[in-house]
Amino acid sequence: FDQKVLDEWKISASRLPAGSIILYGEKSFLQEHWQLVLIVAAIITLQSGLIFNLVRNIRRRTKAETEIRLLNESLEGTVAERTLELSDANAKLAELNQVLDHTSRIDALTGLYNRRHMDERLREELEVFKRLQEEFSVMIADIDDFKVVNDTHGHEVGDQVLKILAEALCSSVREYDIVSRWGGEEFLLLLPGLGEADAYDRAEKLRSKVQEITCSQADPFLCVTITIGVATIRENESVSQLINRADVALYQGKYSGKNKSVLAR
Question: Which of 150, 173, 203, 251 might form a disulfide with 177, Cβ 3.0–4.6 angstroms?
Answer without folding.
Answer: 173
